[in-house]
């Protein structure tokens, strides 16, 4: 499948361009050392990653707020390991996590190369459910902010992907329309179904090679975007 007549490309940030899991692990390594948290990092991450994903779904569905997300994903992970941490320390770790996370800036393999390829051909944009303060730091510190004409986050739009309003907000901010635009992201529900439901074409960054419908455009490596754009 090759997309033609597109002028604007919208990317998700975390898990699509910015290697969230790798950077998150490095962040926890640094702050656990700072706070003297005596847990095995890999065992902690084994619990934390699915717990974090679970709470992000609740956050995306407006069932919890961001403070509850930040606290519970840590507290539940420590509880799962039967490791006691005072609430005040959990709060400190939570604050430091948000502060340290944008300082680690590994991108997915091929990210810079494909952005260099797309930049002269299209207007590039970001649509992210992440917190504004954190996402701004990630874009700046990883030296990719200059590729993007606009950045839409859920705090600006007042809703989160897959809510149609965030896509409408992003299109208006970019001064473009659905027919001329394309969404690229790793979350099938938030990025792909969210975009398709508002009439926006989408490409699934299918890093883990999930089984998806045959009518869904997908790439397994970012470099493959050159073959369809």
TrEMBL record:
**Under the GO molecular function aspect, what terms does this record hold?**
5'-nucleotidase activity
Q: Which Pfam families match?
A: Hydrolase
Q: Which InterPro entries match?
A: HAD-like_sf, HAD-SF_hydro_IA, HAD-SF_hydro_IA_YjjG/PynA, HAD_sf, PGP-like_dom2, Pyrimidine_5'-ntase_YjjG
For this protein, the record's Gene3D superfamilies field holds: HAD superfamily/HAD-like, Putative phosphatase, domain 2
| Coiled-coil residues | none
What is this protein called in UniProt? Haloacid dehalogenase
* Source taxonomy: Bacteria, Pseudomonadati, Bacteroidota, Flavobacteriia, Flavobacteriales
């Amino acid at each position: 499948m090759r997309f033609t007549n597109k002028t604007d490309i919208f990317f998700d940030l975390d898990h699509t361009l910015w290697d969230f899991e790798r950077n998150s692990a490095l962040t926890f390594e640094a702050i656990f050392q700072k706070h003297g948290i005596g847990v095995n990092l890999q065992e902690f991450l084994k619990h934390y990653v699915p717990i974090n994903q679970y709470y992000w779904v609740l956050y995306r569905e407006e069932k919890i707020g961001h403070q509850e997300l930040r606290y519970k994903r840590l507290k539940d992970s420590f509880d799962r390991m039967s490791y006691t941490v005072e609430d005040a320390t959990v709060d400190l770790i939570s604050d430091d996590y948000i502060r340290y996370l944008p300082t680690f800036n590994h991108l997915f393999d091929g990210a810079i190369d494909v952005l260099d390829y797309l930049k002269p051909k299209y207007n590039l944009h970001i649509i992210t459910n992440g917190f504004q303060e954190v996402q701004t730091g990630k874009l700046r510190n990883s030296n990719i902010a200059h590729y993007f004409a606009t950045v839409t986050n859920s705090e600006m739009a007042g809703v989160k992907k897959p809510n149609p309003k965030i896509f409408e907000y992003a299109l208006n901010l970019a001064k473009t329309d659905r027919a001329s635009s394309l969404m690229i992201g790793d979350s099938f529900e938030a990025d792909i179904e969210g975009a398709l439901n508002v009439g926006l074409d989408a490409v699934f960054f299918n890093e883990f090679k999930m089984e998806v419908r045959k009518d869904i455009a997908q790439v397994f490596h970012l470099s493959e975007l050159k073959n369809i754009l």
